[in-house]
Each structure stands twice: as structure tokens, then as C-alpha cells.
Fold this protein.
Amino acid sequence: MEIKIEQDLFAHEAELATANRRLFKERGLIVLNLLAAPGAGKTSLIRKMAPLLKRPVAVIEGDPASSIDTDLLNSLGISACQINTEGGCHLEAPMISKALEDFHPEPGSLLIIENVGNLICTASFPLGESIRVVMAGVSEGDDKPFKYPDIFQDADGVILNKMDLQPFVDFDPDRFRRGIKALKPALPIFEVSCKTGSGLPALAEWLEQTIAALGEEG
Amino acid sequence: MHELALTEKMLKLVLTEAKNHQAQRVTKIKVSIGELSGMIEDCVAYYFQLSAQGTIAAGAELEFVKCKAKLFCPACEREFEKGPQDFNCPSCGGLGRLTEAGRECFVESIEVE
């Protein structure tokens, strides 16, 4: 006997993300999911951008192992907690709700979830975030939108980091932009350098505006 | 890369459906996988074999339906299959936009006894 099922396996993930969205609202948190390959500069971005924002920043760090990033952020006065996936390649929605049982960011905070460094799996597991940002570095190459289309397609913004290295690497910004345009024509791209600080004020301003627009939506 | 997590979810879904139909054994599972879903068939098959052990789905045949990624060309107003290098339309060379086709991971049906 044949039984028709016709169910998308990713649909369940969307339900779990919706439960998180309710939790974030109850706790008064605005949540940003930060996605990038390992070494793109996610933690550097957080430490450089936090002082530029009007609201407190709290961080959930996702890494296969270690508390290196969490220890660094806490030492700088940025409230952070660590999830170790023990080899797992992405964070899933229930890991975030579990972490928030013991982690209590101040209401009104921007909670940045620094996902596991990975451009594949992290795209498929929504965490209930309101803002999804993908970060890439010029040293990674200009072909990322063509090789990892999924992750850019669901993003609200793209950060192109390490612009200070551009003179030393073969990165064609037009090719990168063309790829992004195909996936999501209106997706904003922010060219920054976490090393020199260039581009970060514009990024912080966009983030404030995006958060304000979320508030208007209720 | 995340095949284990999704294969376990697939097994749970299959077992629930089979139980609802009072099935004794699941013999076949038909799954559609898009080329941009991040799912590798051999990995799904391997994890399925491990996780289905001791359940009524143990030994079930997995049939994979491959779904190509399709793009939409706004100038030609037609869909085309994604080429290996870029997102360009084969007719006009213009930039296509990605559609939902190619991102699926869908349990179509199961066969039970």
C-alpha cells in the first residue's frame, strides 16, 4: 500500500523557529542571526560594532568546541554565553531556547546569535530571528553567492569584511554584487573592515533603522 | 552536511504515518531532494540505515527524486535550469533569479505492508 505524505522536512524547523520568535518577544529581545564561514570576522564585528549601537548587545556564541569567543566578549564587557555543538555544524532553534533558560539579556537588547562558521547548514535552520545577516571576507573570494546561493537568498543584509585586504587579493566586487543581485535584488551590501573600522558606522545605522522598522511592524 | 538531523526527522515522520495506517513494515520511502538543499543522498541513505535499525522501517528502500535548481529570467519571463558557472539566462544572457525549485527536501510517499 502506498501512503502519500508530501511533507517538507524543513517545515518542522519553521515551527520551532516560530516558538522561539514568541519567546524572544516575551523577553523583549531583538534577535539577529549572524552567518558566515569560519574566520570571516564574526566575533571581530560584534566587538567593534557593539559600542556603536544605542542599545545593549548580548551574544549567544555557537561553536563546535571551546569558549574562546565567549570569554573574549565577556572580558570586553559584552554579555555572552556559549553553546558548544560538540562537532555539530549548525545551531537549531531548541538550542537557543534552552540557552535562554540560564542566560538573561536585559530586555530591549539586541541579541546576536553568532552561528557556527558554516555557509551551508546554517542557512536551512531558522532560529526565530528577526534579522539575518551573512558575512563574507574579500579573502574568501568573489564567487560565494554562486557557490552558496541558499544562504544569501534568505538574508536581510550582507557584510563584506576585510576591505583593507582588497589590494592584496583577487576579489572582483562586481562579480560578487552581480551574484547577490540575482539572488535578492534589493539585498544591501555593506563593505567594512573590522581591522580599520571603515564602513562600521554605516552598518550600525542600517541596523538601528532595521530594528526601528521592526518595532513599527509590532 | 546536516543529513543526520534531517534523516532522523524523516524517520520519525515515516514511522508516525506508518503507525497511523497500522502498517507492519515500511518497504519504500520516496524523497525529493533539491540540488541546493544541502542534502547528499549517500549520506541520507547511510544515516537512515543506522537510525532505522530495530524499527519497522529497517531495510526500507530509499528512492530519491533529484530536483534541479531553476531560475527565472525576468526579461524572457521564463524559467531555466541553473548552469554550472553563473545565474545567466541561456537565451538572453541576462541575470536570472533563484526560485524555490531546487531547495526542497520533501518526503513524497511511503510504501507499507
Q: What stands out?
A: Chain A is about 35% helix and 20% strand. The interface with chain B takes residues 1-10, 12, 89-90, 92, 118, 120-121, 123-125, 146, 149-150, 153, 178-179, 181-183, 185 of chain A (CB under 8 Å).
